[in-house]
Amino acid sequence: MTASTAQAPTTLDDAIVQNAEAALETVGRAREAIHTVIFGQEDVVDLSLITLLAGGHGLLVGVPGLAKTKLVETLGTVLGLDARRVQFTPDLMPSDIIGSEILDEGADRRRSFRFVKGPVFAQLLMADEINRASPRTQSALLQAMQEHHVSVGGERHDLPQPFHVLATQNPIEQEGTYPLPEAQLDRFLLQIDVSYPDREAERRILIETTGVDDRKPSTVMSADGLMNAQRLVRRLPVGESVVEAILDLVRAARPEGESIAGVSDKLLWGPGPRASQALMLAVRARALIEGRVAPSIADVVALAEPVLKHRMALTFAARADGETIPAIIARLTARLGA
Prior knowledge:
Blueprint: H1 3-7, H2 12-35, H3 42-53, E1 58-61, H4 68-78, E2 83-87, H5 94-98, E3 99-105, E4 111-117, E5 124-128, H6 135-147, E6 149-152, E7 155-158, E8 164-169, H7 182-185, E9 190-193, H8 199-208, H9 223-235, H10 240-252, E10 267-269, H11 273-289, H12 297-308, E11 313-314, H13 316-320, H14 325-333
Parallel strand pairs: 1-8, 1-9, 2-5, 5-8
Antiparallel strand pairs: 3-4, 6-7, 10-11
Helix pairs in contact: 3-11, 10-11, 10-12, 11-12, 12-14
């Protein structure tokens, strides 16, 4: 028996464990590289990585100046992705995102249309202040996010692989904005709330970002490496107790069916099956970045709010009574017993 044969995994579980250990080491180095540029915000960085490892899109919600743009740029560099940024404005047209056809004339004076790709043809697209674009432009991005291709002039154009959208939104200033429709909100795997840094993190920001040297993150992964990690996430086993916890949580967050007393009458609408799928992938990704090959109910509890928050709405009466979505979700996760 050769050395290479002796080291080969003997079962599928062994292969998953070995691949998970390799992926964990790479993801760990990626986290360290990100934190050389993004100070504090550990939860935000982890949730962003979970979003990408699960193969989804993320919505970053926070006031200006909290390094949301810097985070997306850093993720693109560290993960070795072709990243682009689009500043969304009310006059932004769908063609400004997906591209358009132009009329070309060749040397023989024959004319033909040629498709010029827009910035959506990137592996990581930052949609900055996405709610400032018109519904027409938002719907163009919606097709790209869901179907991973765009259609122009009756022709299909596939987007690069992998393809992820990280959008930002200001939760305070709503003048001149177009609220995202429920259908588009549902396309975001996680809503990631970006809060103010703590005192020590802000102290480090003051010292390390106002000098002469400008820190640059290093490239740790590649697009192929990220896709391999995404395939691994889908192979990680999920115990029956975790599956039942996901079902219990999502189904209880709806205004009908299996909702619990004191919750169902406060909800206008709740998460659909896509939320269950998102939670199933997200808990696997969280387990992987924490060094485990299988998720637990604690992962379900930790990711319940980022997965469900943007997929639920309160009735007018509940809002008038001071009820909030996070409080509802906390009430539901308390029943899981993690």
